[in-house]
Amino acid sequence: MKPATFRRLINLWPPYLLNSIRVLSIADDWQAARVALYLRPWNRNIMRTQFGGNLFAMIDPIPMLLAMQQLGDRYHVWDRSAEVDFIAPGRSHVFASVDMPASAIEEIRAAAAGGEKVLRWFDIDIQHADGRPVAQIRKQLYVRLKSQHRAPSTAAAPT
To answer: Where are the beta strands (DSSP E) in the chain?
Structure first.
Protein backbone atom coordinates (compact mmCIF):
# COMPACT_ATOMS: atom_id res chain seq x y z
CA MET A 1 0.00 0.00 0.00
CA LYS A 2 1.22 3.47 -0.78
CA PRO A 3 1.89 5.76 2.20
CA ALA A 4 -0.62 8.36 0.98
CA THR A 5 -3.37 5.73 0.75
CA PHE A 6 -2.49 4.38 4.19
CA ARG A 7 -2.56 7.91 5.63
CA ARG A 8 -6.07 8.48 4.31
CA LEU A 9 -7.28 5.16 5.72
CA ILE A 10 -5.73 5.53 9.19
CA ASN A 11 -7.29 8.98 9.48
CA LEU A 12 -10.68 7.25 9.17
CA TRP A 13 -9.84 4.74 11.93
CA PRO A 14 -12.32 5.49 14.76
CA PRO A 15 -9.73 6.02 17.55
CA TYR A 16 -8.12 8.71 15.38
CA LEU A 17 -11.20 10.15 13.71
CA LEU A 18 -13.23 10.52 16.92
CA ASN A 19 -10.36 11.99 18.94
CA SER A 20 -9.20 14.57 16.37
CA ILE A 21 -5.92 12.78 15.70
CA ARG A 22 -4.60 13.12 12.16
CA VAL A 23 -1.64 11.61 10.39
CA LEU A 24 -0.44 14.62 8.40
CA SER A 25 2.21 12.87 6.34
CA ILE A 26 4.05 9.61 5.84
CA ALA A 27 7.32 9.60 3.91
CA ASP A 28 7.31 7.71 0.62
CA ASP A 29 9.99 5.37 2.05
CA TRP A 30 8.06 4.83 5.32
CA GLN A 31 10.93 6.31 7.36
CA ALA A 32 8.94 9.12 8.98
CA ALA A 33 5.45 10.26 9.83
CA ARG A 34 4.00 13.47 11.20
CA VAL A 35 0.96 13.29 13.50
CA ALA A 36 -1.28 15.99 14.98
CA LEU A 37 -3.73 15.98 17.88
CA TYR A 38 -6.17 18.86 17.67
CA LEU A 39 -7.54 20.19 20.94
CA ARG A 40 -11.34 20.09 20.80
CA PRO A 41 -14.07 20.39 23.45
CA TRP A 42 -14.72 16.63 23.26
CA ASN A 43 -11.12 15.53 23.77
CA ARG A 44 -10.04 17.79 26.63
CA ASN A 45 -9.48 16.59 30.17
CA ILE A 46 -10.97 18.20 33.29
CA MET A 47 -8.18 20.82 33.23
CA ARG A 48 -9.17 21.78 29.65
CA THR A 49 -5.88 20.49 28.24
CA GLN A 50 -4.98 17.55 26.04
CA PHE A 51 -6.12 14.25 27.55
CA GLY A 52 -3.06 12.08 28.30
CA GLY A 53 -4.62 9.01 26.75
CA ASN A 54 -4.96 10.84 23.44
CA LEU A 55 -1.36 12.02 23.62
CA PHE A 56 -0.33 8.38 23.81
CA ALA A 57 -2.91 7.24 21.24
CA MET A 58 -1.62 9.66 18.61
CA ILE A 59 1.72 7.84 18.65
CA ASP A 60 0.73 4.32 19.62
CA PRO A 61 0.51 2.48 16.26
CA ILE A 62 2.92 4.61 14.24
CA PRO A 63 6.39 3.17 15.07
CA MET A 64 5.15 -0.39 14.61
CA LEU A 65 3.50 0.42 11.29
CA LEU A 66 6.57 2.23 9.94
CA ALA A 67 8.80 -0.69 10.96
CA MET A 68 6.41 -3.26 9.46
CA GLN A 69 6.36 -1.49 6.13
CA GLN A 70 10.16 -1.20 5.96
CA LEU A 71 10.92 -4.71 7.20
CA GLY A 72 8.35 -6.45 5.05
CA ASP A 73 6.33 -9.59 5.71
CA ARG A 74 9.31 -11.77 6.67
CA TYR A 75 9.24 -10.35 10.22
CA HIS A 76 6.89 -10.33 13.18
CA VAL A 77 6.65 -6.77 14.49
CA TRP A 78 4.79 -6.02 17.73
CA ASP A 79 4.56 -3.24 20.25
CA ARG A 80 6.25 -4.56 23.39
CA SER A 81 6.31 -1.72 25.88
CA ALA A 82 5.74 2.00 26.23
CA GLU A 83 6.60 4.82 28.59
CA VAL A 84 5.04 8.28 28.74
CA ASP A 85 6.68 11.28 30.36
CA PHE A 86 4.22 14.16 30.62
CA ILE A 87 6.31 17.33 30.58
CA ALA A 88 3.78 20.18 30.34
CA PRO A 89 0.05 20.56 29.70
CA GLY A 90 -1.03 20.51 26.08
CA ARG A 91 -2.97 23.74 25.94
CA SER A 92 -3.35 23.79 22.15
CA HIS A 93 -2.95 21.52 19.13
CA VAL A 94 0.11 19.29 19.46
CA PHE A 95 2.34 17.57 16.92
CA ALA A 96 4.86 14.75 16.76
CA SER A 97 7.35 13.53 14.21
CA VAL A 98 8.03 9.81 14.30
CA ASP A 99 11.31 8.77 12.71
CA MET A 100 12.15 5.21 11.71
CA PRO A 101 15.41 5.68 9.78
CA ALA A 102 16.79 3.03 7.45
CA SER A 103 19.84 2.72 9.72
CA ALA A 104 17.62 1.55 12.62
CA ILE A 105 15.87 -0.93 10.34
CA GLU A 106 19.20 -2.32 9.15
CA GLU A 107 20.36 -2.71 12.78
CA ILE A 108 17.17 -4.59 13.56
CA ARG A 109 17.54 -6.83 10.49
CA ALA A 110 21.13 -7.66 11.43
CA ALA A 111 20.22 -8.41 15.04
CA ALA A 112 17.26 -10.59 14.00
CA ALA A 113 19.07 -12.47 11.22
CA GLY A 114 19.65 -15.58 13.34
CA GLY A 115 16.03 -15.76 14.48
CA GLU A 116 16.55 -14.03 17.82
CA LYS A 117 13.98 -11.58 19.13
CA VAL A 118 15.06 -7.97 18.96
CA LEU A 119 13.78 -5.31 21.37
CA ARG A 120 14.39 -1.74 20.22
CA TRP A 121 13.31 1.53 21.83
CA PHE A 122 12.22 4.61 19.87
CA ASP A 123 11.79 8.07 21.42
CA ILE A 124 9.11 10.45 20.14
CA ASP A 125 8.60 14.03 21.30
CA ILE A 126 5.17 15.65 21.33
CA GLN A 127 5.27 19.42 21.06
CA HIS A 128 3.13 22.49 20.60
CA ALA A 129 3.38 24.11 17.16
CA ASP A 130 6.02 26.52 18.50
CA GLY A 131 8.24 23.65 19.70
CA ARG A 132 7.40 23.78 23.41
CA PRO A 133 7.48 20.21 24.77
CA VAL A 134 4.34 18.48 25.99
CA ALA A 135 5.35 14.83 26.38
CA GLN A 136 7.93 12.26 25.43
CA ILE A 137 6.79 8.80 24.43
CA ARG A 138 9.13 5.81 24.39
CA LYS A 139 7.93 2.82 22.39
CA GLN A 140 9.66 -0.53 22.43
CA LEU A 141 9.19 -2.78 19.41
CA TYR A 142 9.58 -6.53 19.37
CA VAL A 143 10.91 -7.83 16.04
CA ARG A 144 11.66 -11.40 15.06
CA LEU A 145 12.30 -13.11 11.76
CA LYS A 146 9.40 -15.47 11.02
CA SER A 147 10.28 -19.15 11.49
CA GLN A 148 9.86 -20.03 7.82
CA HIS A 149 12.56 -17.48 6.94
CA ARG A 150 15.11 -18.59 9.53
CA ALA A 151 18.13 -20.71 8.63
CA PRO A 152 17.72 -24.35 9.64
CA SER A 153 19.18 -25.16 13.03
CA THR A 154 22.67 -26.68 12.95
CA ALA A 155 22.16 -28.44 16.28
CA ALA A 156 22.24 -32.21 16.06
CA ALA A 157 18.87 -33.89 16.35
CA PRO A 158 18.43 -36.05 19.46
CA THR A 159 18.94 -39.74 18.83
So the answer is: 21-26, 32-37, 75-86, 94-99, 118-128, 133-145
Other C-beta atoms within 10 Å of 96: how many?
22
Each residue's pLDDT, cut to its tens digit, for the chain (159 residues) gives 899 999 999 999 999 999 999 999 999 999 999 999 999 999 999 999 999 999 999 999 999 999 999 999 999 999 999 999 999 999 999 999 999 999 999 999 999 999 999 999 999 999 999 999 999 999 999 999 998 877 765 444 455
Q: Are 108 and 143 in contact (CB under 8 A)?
A: yes
Q: ∠ CA(114), CA(117), CA(119), 5° rounding? A: 130
For 97, half-sphere exposure in the C-beta direction (CA atoms, 13 angstrom radius) is 7
DSSP lists the bridge partners of residue 138 as 83, 123
Of 93, 85, 150, the C-alpha closest to 116 is: 150
